[in-house]
Amino acid sequence: YTSGPVCVVHPHLWLFANPTAAQAKEYDVVINVAKEIASPLLEEASGHEEPTVPPRKLAGVEYVHVPWQHNASLAQDLPSLTAYMDRCLKQEKRVLVHCQQGVSRSASLVIAYVMKSMGKDVNEAYGFVKHESPWIGPNMTLIYQLCEWGKLLKR
Length: 155
Known about the structure:
Elements: E1 6-9, E2 13-16, H1 21-24, E3 29-32, E4 52-58, E5 61-65, H2 78-90, E6 95-98, H3 105-118, H4 122-132, H5 140-154
Parallel strand pairs: 2-6, 3-5, 3-6
Antiparallel strand pairs: 1-2, 4-5
């Protein structure tokens, strides 16, 4: 991400690696799906970080932390996260989804959202997101789970 966050679903859904506080403040909603990454906004908030679903406000930004590891099980979180993203985007909120590198976990959530909101299968959604952000590359464990997500969406 040489030029900062990338808009993957125009005009309000953005994908990135670990943002600075200044970058995070440019969004209405920040969704962090990296267990090892604390909120960049915590310096301005009191207390320590814990998983946050539903979101909490940090420095005026709706902040959600879902502590996924690289081999995380996404199934339990995808329905609520994609529904939350959909609500935010319908309200024209600027949503930033990030993890440590912006390659695997955050990309998987964005792909899952594209699958649900646009009715695309995993290959179409992957291609759609990859076209906007060439840096993405979810690991095979997450790709397999996205295939399962696609089966669930078809039911």
